[in-house]
């Protein structure tokens, strides 16, 4: 049995979370227990509401090729600058679009770059104005655009009360708006992705979010299956979904289950072990770095982090890539980056509209892709406008 320690930021007490992970359970339940064990190890605590998770093969194997990227719509903290907008992070996974935080001006940031997508979910990290003030206007815009797809807004306790007070701005949208206060560690499941809030150290209740993809089944050895007497066709699918076919058990022809991708976004926080645990060996950690270390006292007083502190958290968590955001306008991105890289080399400081692509682990490392100025998008829009004009 594995044991994971976690420092409770409130009390300083050492918490212990035990995994239900032993070889007999894995043998008995196939990959499901292993999935849960990985997830619990990742988040470092028992996920009270998650229950058991199936490992189903997606139709057509889409999971194996599904793209995952984070688009940085706003990278400033507290107040916008000429170059940086207020916090907003667009998670793009296959056709799904999830927004984390929605600072003032987020709609405009999106419209200027990748477009205002029909989001399925918005997750607020906390209720400081720089993280949500763009939301009421965006909710109204969705209504004006005759959106039909329902939308859920999630956030820490107090989110629904706050957005209720904003009702006069956005009314009662016909598209079906749900507002949910989350408890820490209460996962939100969207197909084969879980978004798990966890408490961080900031003024008021503030969450980070861990985005956890389900694990993928191991590689299927079709040649071996055929040699053992399984007929190619539907039986191959059944075998991969866990059925024993013609005396051939799945584990005879399937490799070890492969971990899903994990991305952790801290929101505003002072350095905390809660992030180290949640982001343990994550593919990407998006950590705030409001200050340089010369202002460490100010960071402590306001429960924010310095670049050096964020880098130390990334080093302790052994993440594959660290991205720093929520920059105070008093520093340049270069200063923040250099300070962090002295502690943790694999650090990037995205500018507004940059993207981080997170390929499946066997396909390469997470990578920062600089915004190209939207030339592709502008060219497409111009071509569409020209086509429209010539047809009218
Ligand atoms: Zn903030
Ligand atoms: Zn804040």
Structure in words:
The chain has 15 helices and 17 strands. 30% of the residues lie in helices and 21% in strands. The longest helix has 17 residues, at 375-391. It is α/β, with parallel strands linked by helices. 42% of the residues are buried. The protein has helices at 23-29, 31-43, 62-65, 106-112, 135-144, 159-165, 167-170, 222-227, 234-240, 250-253, 273-278, 296-302, 307-317, 333-341, 375-391; strands at 3-7, 14-18, 68-74, 88-93, 96-102, 121-123, 151-155, 177-181, 188-190, 193-199, 207-213, 262-265, 284-288, 322-325, 347-348, 355-357, 367-369. The strands form three sheets. It has an eight-stranded mixed beta sheet with strand order 8-7-6-5-4-3-16-17. α1 crosses α2 and α13 (307-317) packs across α14 (333-341). It has a single domain (3-218, 256-381), classed as Metallo-beta-lactamase, Chain A (4-Layer Sandwich). The site of one zinc ion has 7 residues, from loops.
């Amino acid at each position: 049995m594995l044991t994971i320690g976690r420092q409770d930021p409130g009390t300083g007490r050492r918490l212990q979370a035990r995994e239900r992970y032993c070889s007999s359970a894995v043998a008995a339940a196939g990959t499901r227990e292993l999935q849960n064990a990985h997830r619990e190890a990742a988040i470092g605590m028992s996920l009270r509401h998650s229950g058991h998770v199936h490992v189903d093969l997606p139709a057509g194997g889409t999971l194996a090729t599904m793209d995952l990227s984070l688009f940085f719509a706003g990278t400033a903290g507290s107040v916008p600058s000429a170059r940086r907008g207020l916090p907003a992070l667009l998670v793009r996974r296959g056709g799904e679009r999830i927004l984390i935080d929605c600072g003032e001006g987020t709609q405009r940031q999106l419209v200027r770059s990748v477009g205002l997508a029909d989001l399925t979910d918005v997750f607020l990290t906390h209720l400081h104005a720089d993280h949500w003030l763009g939301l009421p206007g965006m909710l109204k815009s969705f209504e004006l655009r005759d959106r039909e797809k329902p939308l859920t807004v999630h956030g820490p306790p107090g989110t629904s009360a706050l957005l209720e007070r904003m009702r006069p701005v956005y009314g009662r949208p016909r598209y079906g708006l749900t507002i949910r206060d989350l408890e820490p560690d209460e996962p939100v499941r969207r197909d084969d992705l879980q978004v798990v809030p966890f408490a961080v150290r900031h003024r008021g209740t503030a969450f980070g979010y861990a985005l956890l993809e389900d694990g993928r089944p191991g590689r299927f050895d079709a040649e071996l299956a055929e040699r053992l007497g399984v007929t190619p066709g539907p039986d191959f699918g059944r075998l991969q979904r866990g059925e024993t076919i013609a005396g051939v058990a799945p584990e005879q022809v399937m490799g070890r289950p492969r971990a899903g991708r994990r991305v952790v976004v801290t929101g505003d926080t002072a350095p905390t072990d809660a992030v180290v645990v949640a982001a343990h060996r994550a593919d990407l950690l998006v950590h705030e770095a409001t200050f340089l270390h010369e202002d460490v006292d100010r960071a402590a007083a306001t429960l924010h982090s310095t670049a050096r502190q964020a880098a130390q958290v990334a080093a302790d968590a052994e993440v594959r890539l660290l991205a720093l955001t929520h920059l105070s306008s008093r520093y340049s991105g270069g200063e923040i980056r250099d300070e962090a890289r002295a502690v943790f080399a694999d650090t990037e400081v995205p500018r507004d509209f940059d993207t981080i692509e997170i390929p499946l682990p066997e396909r390469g490392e997470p990578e920062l892709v600089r915004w190209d100025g939207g030339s592709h998008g502008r060219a497409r829009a111009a071509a569409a406008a020209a086509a429209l004009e010539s047809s009218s």
